[in-house]
Input
Amino acid sequence: MKATSCLFLAVCAVYILHNAHGQHVNGNSLAGTFSERKAPVAVQSDVQVSTRQLAALVKDASMLVSKDGEKAFAELRTPGSRWRQGETYIFVLDTKGNMLVHADPGMENKNQLDLKDVNGKPIIRGLIKAATAIPEKPEGWYHYEWPVPGGLLPRWKSSFVQLVKAPGGKSYIVGSGMYNDRMEKEFVVDLVKSAQAEIEKHGKAAFKTFHDPAGPYLAKDAYIFVFTMEGVEVVNPAFPTVEGNNNFDMKDAQGKYLVREIIKTVQTSDSGWVDYMWPKPGESVPTQKSAYVRKATFEGETFGVGCGVYLADAPKAVEKTKKLTAPELMTLVRDAASELEKRGVKAFPDFRKKGSRWFSNDTYLFVWSLDGTRAFHGADASLEGKKIDGTTDVHGRPYGKLFIEAAKSTKGEGWVHYMFPEPGDIFPTWKSSFVKRVKLPDGKQYLVGSGIYNMQMDKAFIIDLVNHAASLVQEKGEASFDELRDKKGSFYFMDTYVFVEDSKGMILVHPAQPSLEGKNMYNEKDVKGKSFVREYTEAALKKGSAWTDYYWYKPGDNTPTQKYTYVRKVQHGSKTYIVGAGYYQPDNVKKTSQAQKTSSRSLEKK
Output
């Protein structure tokens, strides 16, 4: 069985986890504690502390507390000491959530048990549980989102904590954290060991915990999966709809029986690493992904529990076939529309020819009537004749409805993004389809379209997306904001989203991080000190539209990556808005082709 989407997909997790569940939280939240108190600014170090260094620091601090008890707290607070350098510092909690030592004095001597991050994840409760939930494992990692000291934008922070008993008999949680957007081997091993313990203690009742977005088992781009020894997948938070399927014969992108390998590993070694090739979300070329798996037993039943991760510098496969770019796919669909206008259904046989321009590799055409009936499907004729206007993807995104809306729009064409399996596969992956309205010689109207799996964003596509959003804001003003925020709509997919600001830099719409709405970002700087919000706001107000680039952390990566953002000035009544979207340029794309530049210029004029 072919598998070119992700069995252990980080997507959605990027989609599900990384900022997809962002929301204002009640009570004691990150936004209402750290930022408002304006903690002392610490310059972010270019040299990242390693996971092993951080764990060693916490263990040494724990030894100090176990030896000197509360007298050690004064030493742990000393600025410039090994316990407190830049953004790395030791903190101490008691088991009831009282903060006893912290780099921000305003947090000390207060109960922080209800402190949550921007996604509503309980920070202090999670830290305490990491050190106390498993008696034979009085230490562990916990992951949450928190701003770099003095900053506004949250990043993933991974904290290592250890339970320690002072000479007086009191127990404390000693810990420290590091800003790390990527899952490391140490994190994955710790996560799987904890999940194994949950299963061996609670059995199948633990499975619900693995799905909890506010729990410890969904972090960054990682999640726990569970198989029976027969190959039945019983836990997959990224794709709950596949739970219950037998995937014993599932292959990776290069034909490796990865589920069989997972089962063999837990049966023969109890634990170990399994490597396989899989495309990262938004990439078409498979990258080596490594899964750590362990055997868990409960009342005589054995499970394989694991977690997959793309490690730093993981090797990539050589791309065998070149994927179409967004402008190239748009040209293909528009040319197909011209054929249909001239020849009608007589064009269908040509559209079915494998190896032709119309059907190459996993790129094929489809045609729908505007009432939602599929008239033609280039890859599978058995799907024709079915009314599917109400079709939704695995996350409930109504792509059938979105196809028809795009075709019936004033432009008569547009992009729709959804999760859909590649031909011959059962696991959905991101697909971006361009559809266009067309009138056949008999006078009937249809839509014709084609899609790209794991499409890489480029300038032409982002311009088209922003133009679409700008038209909506120009027409409806604030009444358009809910549509722009809709995670099942046209403006939010993979790690791409549309944002809206006022002319002063105030965030009005930010679906990836709703907690930023209402905050002024005008003076926000990138990791290299560039005032990127100020730059693109001033440029848009002066020129009407503009591109800017700056360096930020791509989800799942600790190295700052160049991000390109396109913005447009939009007027609705007396109010001026800045509408924009951005993308991280893939590593293997060094230059924008002349064709893309030409397409970008034509789109920009629309």
